[in-house]
């Protein structure tokens, strides 16, 4: 759920729509407290595909793995558009998207490092950053601080996944992650980590500001 397509206000989008004028999906979302929505379905489908792609690595089906992970990531691009167009954006949906993102990213980093697709220190660096930002977001949502990911953080996430998919491609081709293309991917990953770290620090500052406002 990206850009402003799935960023939700304090109340679900359908809350301001009279019951009789709600669409089928808005009614379903209201009945399930925002859990069952088109965007959430696509988010969950996306992470399932990513995990299935990682499982395929166990059987050395590298091309199938790459395909499943790529389609899973496309689902992550589509879920926000779907949520926006069906007018079912909500804080729950934003949380589901963020959770699915982190699960997919961390699982991919662990499996890729274990399979030798990527240097484990690089995977650990990206993973730690994802865990920190994920915890900030999780606590912020639990306390209803109204935090939203920064655009630069989204750009960094795209860069991280572009690099990871390239490492998956290199494995499918039988090339080393230390090849020229692999080194370029590490460079992209490095820039993405720098941008993501900046976004995480800023995200934490927003968290602290919201916490201080609540204490006042």
What labels would you give this structure?
216 residues, mainly alpha, single chain, 74% helix, globular
Q: Helical proportion?
A: over 70%
Helix/strand order: HHHHHHH
Q: What does the main sheet amount to? A: none
Name the overall outline.
globular
Q: Would you give an account of this structure?
A:
Helix 5 (120-142) packs parallel to helix 7 (180-215). 38% of the residues are buried. It is globular, with a radius of gyration of 18 Å. It has helices at 24-31, 38-57, 62-85, 91-115, 120-142, 151-173, 180-215. It contains seven helices and no strands. The protein is mostly helical.
How would you summarize what this structure contains?
With 216 residues, this protein is mainly α.
Blueprint (SSEs and pairs):
Blueprint: H1 24-31, H2 38-57, H3 62-85, H4 91-115, H5 120-142, H6 151-173, H7 180-215
């Amino acid at each position: 759920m990206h850009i402003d397509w799935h960023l939700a206000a304090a109340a679900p989008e359908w809350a301001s729509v009279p019951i009789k004028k709600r669409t089928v999906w808005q009614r379903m979302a209201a009945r399930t407290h925002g859990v069952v929505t088109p965007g959430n379905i696509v988010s969950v489908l996306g992470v399932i595909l990513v995990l299935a792609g990682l499982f395929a690595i166990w059987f050395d089906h590298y091309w199938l793995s790459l395909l499943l992970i790529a389609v899973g990531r496309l689902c992550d691009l589509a879920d926000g558009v779907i949520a926006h167009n069906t007018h079912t954006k909500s804080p729950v949906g934003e949380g589901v998207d963020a959770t699915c993102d982190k699960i997919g990213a961390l699982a991919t980093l662990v499996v890729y490092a274990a399979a030798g697709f990527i240097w484990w220190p690089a995977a650990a660096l990206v993973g730690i950053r994802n865990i920190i930002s994920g915890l900030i977001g999780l606590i912020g949502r639990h306390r209803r601080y109204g935090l939203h990911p920064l655009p630069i953080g989204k750009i960094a996430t795209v860069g991280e996944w572009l690099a990871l998919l390239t490492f998956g491609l290199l494995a499918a081709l039988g090339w080393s992650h230390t090849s020229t293309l692999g080194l370029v991917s590490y460079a992209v990953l490095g820039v993405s980590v720098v941008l993501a770290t900046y976004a995480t620090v800023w995200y934490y500052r927003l968290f602290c500001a919201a916490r201080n406002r609540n204490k006042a």
